[in-house]
Automatic annotation (TrEMBL):
Name used for this protein in its record: HD-GYP domain, c-di-GMP phosphodiesterase class II (Or its inactivated variant)
Domain of life: Bacteria
Domain HD-GYP: start-end pairs: 105-301
């Protein structure tokens, strides 16, 4: 199974998971063979990606895809809870604690699993999916840093709620780039941290540490962040972790800034270690994230193309790949698998749609 863009449908793929609309109604059932004429209709419904079984996905380790499905299951619950809270159903918000615990339990079952992110999501699920991604990666990093369970729980709750202040933004910002917004709009967007904190300050079930994450996840080591321009050890560990994960997910998905590829974003985070981001957090981050997620297409420095089959947890930048075409563009007519920790002269040059 692999996750592909709707635009990439060729018309012969077998659907590996039901396609549903925002109301949960099944549009196309699992097992159906896709047709190219479905593309426009799916895009009209705001569906940008699907899960398929095809020749290319043969041999792809679907463990990370299963992680994505777990996140998708949490997504519906988070959206429902936060939407209800927006309509003053205050008692519903405490259910976030249960979702936080579910995410922690899922990750603790397999703490060595690599976190994968694919850079594609529906606009209607954007802010909620962002919160789930940030929470999952933050928890994984906190576990790798061997933080106490209570601290991990605080990070999980805080990261799920870190952007709740965006619900008070008065304009549609979902397709906006921050630097292209007016000064007034930028000020309103930056106020989401104080607005979110103010919304939840009286919620006694939310810890002080979780509230600090909501308020301070945009602070940076060098004082370039907001709202208080805190520096270094004035920023708490939970906010440092969520700050890295929030920045990562925002860049990969193009949330208020130009979209970047996963591996380029990882390198950006690493390059900012000790400048904007805490080095200990960055070290745990780079050991937690798949540079090239399973099922993604790649091109090597030698001009071959391939698909990522599985990860090397001890060297996330060098996964195991199956070669699809040679340097002349001819398709391999036999199975050729290369573990890039052993083929040291081969490097992944870029990611591509297959």
């Amino acid at each position: 199974m692999r996750r592909i863009l709707v635009d990439s449908i060729k018309g012969s793929e077998k659907l590996a998971r039901d396609i549903v609309n925002d109301n949960g109604t099944i549009i196309i059932a699992n097992g159906n063979v896709l047709k190219k004429q479905y593309i426009d209709r799916l895009k009209e419904l705001g569906i940008n990606y699907i899960y398929v079984e095809d020749e290319l996905s043969e041999g792809v380790d679907d463990e990370q895809i299963q992680e994505l499905l777990i996140q998708d299951q949490c997504l519906t619950n988070v959206k429902e809870i936060i939407d209800k809270y927006s309509y003053q159903a205050v008692d519903e918000l405490i259910e976030i604690k249960k979702i936080a615990e579910e995410i922690i339990r899922d990750i603790l079952k397999e703490p060595e699993v690599m976190f994968s992110i694919y850079g594609i999501r529906k606009k209607s699920e954007s802010i909620y999916s962002h919160c789930i991604n940030v929470c999952s990666l933050s928890v994984l990093i906190a576990i790798k840093m061997k933080l106490p369970r209570t601290k991990i729980r605080d990070i999980a709750v805080g990261s799920l709620l870190h952007d709740i202040g965006y619900n008070l933004v008065s304009f549609d910002y979902m397709d906006s780039i921050f630097n292209n917004c007016t000064k007034e709009q930028q000020k309103e967007l930056m106020s989401h941290v104080i607005d979110g904190y103010s919304l939840l300050i009286r919620e006694s079930w939310i810890s002080v540490s979780s509230k600090d994450i909501i308020l301070c996840h945009h602070e940076r080591l060098d004082g370039s962040g907001y709202p208080f321009h805190k520096k270094a050890d004035k920023i708490k560990i939970g906010s440092k972790i969520v700050g890295v994960c929030d920045e990562f997910d925002s860049k990969v998905y193009g949330h208020l800034e130009p979209k970047m590829k996963v591996h380029d974003t990882i390198r950006y985070i690493i390059n900012q270690s000790g400048i904007k981001f805490d080095p200990d957090v960055v070290n745990a981050f780079k050991d937690s994230i798949a540079y090239y997620p399973n099922g993604i297409g790649i091109v090597t420095n030698e001009g071959e193309t391939g698909i990522v089959l599985r990860q090397n947890p001890r060297n996330p930048a060098r996964p195991v790949i199956r070669m699809i075409t040679d340097i002349q563009g001819n398709k391999y007519n036999y199975w050729l698998e290369k573990d890039l920790t052993k083929y040291t002269k081969i490097a992944i040059w870029d990611t591509i749609e297959l």
